[in-house]
Specification:
The protein is built from two helices and four strands, in the order βαββαβ. The strands form two sheets. It has a two-stranded antiparallel ribbon. β2 and β3 form a beta hairpin.
């Protein structure tokens, strides 16, 4: 099973990962991180296929994908 996690401290809420995800399982939270940004989160880990598109496109290296 794959697992996608976002380090909310480093995420600046650009949303690139949301657009890159082929399974549409990433969204921006309503919560705000320490820097004042809405950050990304995976809404359904069971649908993650570990394609790493979110990881590759993240300019802040805030995403980790484990398989």
């Amino acid at each position: 099973m794959a697992r996608m996690t976002v380090d909310s401290f480093y995420c600046k809420g650009c949303g690139l990962c949301v657009d890159a995800c082929p399974k549409d399982i990433i969204r921006m939270t309503v919560d705000i991180n320490e820097k004042g940004y809405h950050y990304a989160e995976c809404v359904d880990q069971s649908k993650c296929i570990a394609c790493k598109m979110c990881y590759v496109i993240c300019p802040d290296v805030a995403i980790t994908v484990e398989k």
